[in-house]
Amino acid sequence: MQDSLAGRTRVVVYDRAGYGASEPGPLPRHAAREADELRALLEAASVDGPYVLVGHSLGGLNAQVFAARYRDDVAGLVLLDPPPLGWLLGDRFPGLRRMAEAMTDDWQRLADRRPDAADPGARAEADFFRMIASEHREMLGGSARQAAAIDSFGDLPVTV
Fold first, then answer.
1. What value does the mean pLDDT of the chain take?
2. Model confidence pTM above 0.85
3. DSSP letters along the chain, please?
């Protein structure tokens, strides 16, 4: 998608805190924090809006919260496989929620292993698992509530 869009418009891609080449960020990792960090990065890089935000999976929650917080800077939203708020917040699908909670616990256990302090790769892996555990814990709580609190995007084009 990035390559096909880059032929027609400016495309900016970034690694959220704890992913790829980005340093780990402060915990907890919730959508409002992610949105504010993205906003600060765009400003620091002098990337002016309006933006068409594309968010995949948890990034879909982050994109929705960004659009709600910075509405005047967003021209559209594209949400690729965002987590459904109904099963994140409700009790309609308890098995899915339990599965997500178990995965989060597993990631936290991986993060809590004591990496060899002399091995930067082991430290980076532990940091990654710590970030993903925090994001998923918040997805089941704070981030989902932040996205669910959005009444409407008004006339903002949204594609899911």
1. 85
2. no
3. -HHHHHTTS-----PPTTSTTPPP-PSS--HHHHHHHHHHHHHHTT--S-EEEEEETHHHHHHHHHHHHTGGGEEEEEEESPPPHHHHHSSS-HHHHHHHHHHHHHHHHHHHS---TT-HHHHHHHHHHHHHHHHHHHHTTHHHHHHHT----TT--EE-
